[in-house]
Amino acid sequence: MGIINNFFKKKPVRKRSYSGAAGGRLFADFSSMTKSSDSELKPALRTLRNRCRELARNDEYVRRYLQLLKTNVVGPDGVSVQAKARNSDGSLDAPGNKIVEKAFAKWSKTGTCTVDGRLSFVDAQRLVIETLARDGECLIRLINGAQNEDRFAIQFIEADLLDEEMNETLDNGNRVRMGVEIDEFGRAVAYHLLREHPGDYEFSNHGHIRKHTRVPASELLHIFQQDRPHQTRGAPPMAAAINSLKMLHGYREAELVAARVSAAKMGFITSPDGDGYSGDDVEDTHTPIMSAEPGTFEQLPAGMSISMFDPQHPVSAFSEFHKAVLRGIASSLGVSYAALASDLESVNYSSIRQGALDERDNYRTLQAFMITHFIEPVFQSWLTSAMTAGALPLPMTRFDKFSESIVYRPRGFSWIDPVREINAQVTGIQNGLLSMQDVATHYGADIEDVFESIQREKELAERYGISLAFQPFGNKANAEPHVTGTDEKPEPEED
User: What stretches in the chain show pLDDT beneath 50?
Assistant: First the structure.
């Protein structure tokens, strides 16, 4: 009876749920633990950082990726700083703006802007971008009272010095998480830096003693891209591609070794009795060998034969498999496959244009991030120090005027198809959809500088009696020749 009752017993109705939350053996290795961002990052931070550095040293595609970032985000000239302060009547304060721009350009030269004197400010921008991509975070100390005219410089500090092993609650109620001291709102108030690099074994005299220096947050820029709300430290953006990069590197290396072995044809001389041949030479292992030159035929002793060792490498599927894996890596890094692999074999105009546009949006995002978190804070700190020290012939009463009127212009990008895109830009200007400044910004230029340059060229041409073949921003109304002294009307054109 019990069996019959169980048979007719109503089965429970399955409730709808997310398939992504389903269990079973297929998802047994799919981690679903609830952990904070810091709890996930702390045990992995040092390993991730060191592995990314190893790839940066030895993997050609990672080197290419870092070079792409430095070239496209920073470029040859870096972010330009332009002062656009205005007078009370709305006109530009040209003398004051030039004083600020000239002084900052002087400070930005090699030997002045960094405390060690090794970098220019453009070099510093490249180092920031590379460090962020490789280490996941960048530490820059603002040094007030530096030994230069402006009494200000910056100092790069490796992320290793921010001690991730320091985690405690202080007497003032603040908490230290991986070396970062935060208040009750999670705001960084100080950084606890190791006085010596933990891996500087060859040059350290203090053994493994961990001594710290507390640096107020106002004196240090901790730059990293925050992925989660309560994240305290930065993770390398290459983290998702580390495994693929390492295994692909090993695969290429194995195929290269196999191809080299395959190119060196070898054979084994065998006999029914296993002896009777002494060879022309003897290896270190006392194994007899015979050397064969190309185009020769050797006569073997009676009863002996040759068994060839002829592996076929690289395998036919190597190229396509390599491309497929590298495409996934490029997608993770935010660059196109064509740019990362320097492979333009199968691209056309449409595909390379779309890839370039996607890349440039990523580069522009990084440019804006660098300006917000590095360029602007450094400039504002420099301006404060320079005006306080009297390095600028400007009174402190005008500080706000200049500090609030700075325009930061990153590098622009050249057109992919100049004819098409220039025509599109001209059409946009003529129809009021674009301004000339919009077009200038595309190149990383300022329209006032463009006008000034054009004016100088016109004056220079007039000075040397040269007639320009074009009229920049001219009126086409007078483009047609005008004939005077005749009433004849032009003949109508024939169909």
Answer: 476-495
